[in-house]
Design goal:
Length: 386
């Protein structure tokens, strides 16, 4: 379906981004998958190409481009010619804005130019061994000591956890208040900050996911993001954009799977005809085409709303819920249409199937998305239960 949201500038940017991914990502994906993480150099190269932190104001080394459509193009070309696990956008647009919007002047001057160049890779650390969906249930503590804050605790499943050089860390600052959470930037080399191993995963093999440990990590005041007692509201604010990013990735991933499968079923023959000639295959492809087109249109509309500052948490949740469910549906059908080949690691669709499974879990699970949407339509469990 022709998409109406892009103009000539976007298309030129897409061509350049595609060429970049074909040259700097695609040839390395297999190696990255084997080693369980991408090389840091790809961030430096993406920085040189101007693909990182595009929103960062010029005074901090960026291009000052807030239009999310450019990021959407980076996402789509990364998924098509790189890999779903290459988390450039998590660095640029999921974590970067915490520093841009909530960071001190000193922090912005020091970190943002390195975010744009890819020298410092960013991550965000909310999840803990005992709290994932229930972000307000985190136990990591930050205690004020003079002007500094001292953090103790541990985090898990942190993306860019091995390659990352700076992490936005959520820690409890008010012990007896559920939402009494602060956000702090912990950087490589701070005493008491350690990372664990790169966690073995079912999919997303090009992406390093790690545990992080904090033992009396002293954080200076310039590394505190916003009001240290109101970080929970910062998280809620930025989570809408996180969900839009996920939705863009998921539907792009589904589209790539569809294209690969189309090629396969036209080429592969059974009973004297291409697999694509069977009514079952044609109907499955038709159903997938419809789901992808309808969802992409909704996601594109959310992108435009986000550009206007009008994307609500509920709409972002709807986009993420629908795109991740469509992605899973499409992956399963595409593996089936590939037959045995779909189960073999040498076929890309087999990795895409396992990569996709996380989409209904991270960045807020499908169940949490439904909670947000239900609350938005007035069905708030807490209020209804009295
Ligand atoms: C590959 C990967 C990368 C990740 N990257 C990051 C990262 O960079 N930073 C970060 O902070 N976290 C990250 N996460 C963590 C991720 O966000 C959490 O795994 C996710 O939020 C779910 O939390 P949980 O694993 O604790 O599951 P739980 O919260 O224990 O949930 C278990 C199940 O219960 C369901 N459930 C929970 N609460 C409810 C409810 N109220 N109603 C109905 N069902 C419910 C869930 O939907 C889920 O199905 C990552 C996870 C993965 C797998």
């Amino acid at each position: 379906m022709h998409r109406l949201i892009f103009d000539e500038d976007h298309e030129m940017f897409r061509d350049a981004t595609r060429r970049f991914m074909q040259a700097e990502a695609e040839p390395h994906v297999e190696k990255w998958r084997e080693q369980g993480q991408c090389d840091k150099e790809v961030f430096l190269k993406a920085g040189e190409q101007g693909l990182l932190g595009m929103w960062v104001p010029e005074e901090y080394g960026g291009a000052g481009i807030g239009d999310f459509r450019f990021e959407q193009i980076v996402i789509e070309e990364t998924v098509r010619h790189g890999d779903l696990g290459l988390f450039l956008t998590l660095h640029s647009r999921l974590v970067g804005p915490y520093i841009g919007e909530l960071g001190s002047e000193t922090l912005k001057k020091r970190l943002l130019p390195k975010v744009v160049s890819g020298e410092t890779i960013l991550g965000i650390a909310m999840t803990e061994p005992g709290a994932g969906s229930d972000v307000a249930g985190i136990k990591s503590r930050a205690v004020r000591d003079g002007d500094d804050w001292v953090i103790n605790g541990s985090k898990t499943y942190i993306s860019n956890g091995i390659n990352g050089g700076a992490f936005v860390v959520a820690a409890r600052t008010v012990p007896d208040k559920r939402h009494g959470i602060g956000l702090f930037v912990v950087e490589d080399g701070m005493q008491g900050f350690q990372r664990g191993r790169n966690l073995a995963k079912m999919g997303l093999k090009t992406q390093d996911t790690a545990e992080l440990f904090f033992e009396d990590v002293r954080v200076p005041p310039e590394n505190v993001l916003g009001d240290p007692e109101k970080g929970f509201y910062g998280l809620m604010h930025f989570l809408a954009e996180e969900r839009l990013i996920s939705a863009c990735q998921e539907i792009a991933h589904a589209q790539v799977a569809f294209d690969l499968t189309m090629e396969y079923i036209l080429d592969r023959k059974a009973f004297g005809k291409p697999i694509g000639a069977f009514q079952n295959s044609r109907f499955k492809m038709a159903a997938m085409r419809t789901e992808i087109d309808v969802t992409q249109t909704f996601v594109d509309q959310c992108v435009l709303l986000h550009n206007e500052g009008k994307l609500s948490a509920e709409l972002a949740a709807e986009a993420k819920l629908k795109a991740s469910e469509v992605e899973s549906f499409v992956m399963d059908e595409c593996v089936q249409l590939h037959g045995g080949a779909g189960y073999m690691s040498e076929y890309r669709i087999s990795h895409m199937f396992t990569d996709a499974r996380v989409s209904r879990i991270y960045a807020g699970s499908s169940e949490i998305m439904k909670e947000i949407i239900a609350r938005g339509i007035g069905l708030d469990e807490r209020k209804l239960s009295g």
